[in-house]
Amino acid sequence: MESEFPALWNAIRLGSRDRMVQILLEYGATIDVNSKDRNVLIAAAREGLLTAVQLLLNHGADINTKNDDNETPLIMAARFAHEDLVLFLVGQGARFNVADFRVWLRKMAQIPGKRWSTGVVQTILHHVTDICWRGEDGGILLSLAVAFADHEIIQVCLAEGVDVNRKHPNGATALFEAMLEWGSGGPNTYYRYSGYLRRDVNHRNKKSPTMIAGRLAIAAVLMDHGADVNVSADFNDDSQRPLLVAAASLGVDWAVQALIEYGADCNARAMVIRNPESTRRRFASVFRRVSNEQEPEDMAQGGSALIYAARWGYVSTLRLLLAHGADTSFVDEYGKTALEWALEFEHREIEQMLMEHDKAMGCSVT
Predict the structure, then answer these.
(1) Which pLDDT score, from 0 to 100, does residue 194 have?
(2) Do 11 and 21 touch, CB atoms closer than 8 A?
(3) Could you give phi then psi for residue 237, rounded to 5 degrees?
(4) Residue 108 half-sphere exposure, CB side, CA atoms within 13 Å?
């Protein structure tokens, strides 16, 4: 009957009892169809329906079938952290080579809401022996392990010689991820959610002491292996911002404090495009972000951590920076100092702090 496939598809997608799937198969429901984006075996793998997967395989489903994104059932099960199903599929002879690894890696790197399982990753690494650890493979895996605070996989990556300063395709290094938890959006998250910065700051600053300690422990491990505390990330406006500047831009006080203690340059500056209209932006082929490959002569110094803190009204962040010697005389790409931004946005407490600081330092206050 013509409705065979929709019935089986819906039974899988809705997580129906395995008995329903079995009945549909016994009545001749079609497994192999032309619509690869509605592959029932892959759908079952996505939902982690082990018994349903067994039934489908017993009725002739191709264990290595692919959808339109080149995902196999094993890749899908791995992406949604169904460890028992991953082990089952591997035991049934499902293929998982370096090309499959890179499909999984790409999906994990770019799609929000992914799930993580140390056991799944260990199984993957056991079966894929030709990973390019010192290239993009290792760099992305390290960033993912950092994002999920998976100390075991982090140590595997470091032992394999992953470059800790390699930039994830989203523009940030693993140390950025450890401190600011940008996830798949990377530095572009700052712009995408700029209208909700207050809410985002509350989320980042209200972490429990245990969670903050965990992030700092990961950061310390990365720096022990050569992570550069002053490295800049690529933003989608073609600017490059050091980690301290990015943390101050978001008002994440615990990160600002830790970075200064780690030796970050308190007066580091963002680098911005002198004439954005004259620069053609190239899109990365897979990750849909703008690559930043500007020549040095195209770049000019932008704001410092202090300027961004003043601009967005982060009183406690600005106080931290002043206490550690932040220079109040810098101007950004708009020709404005921290005080001028505070005046423009009427951040009165910050105005007062900056004027008192400059007076104490013997600077003229206009």
Answers:
(1) 38
(2) yes
(3) -100, 15
(4) 30
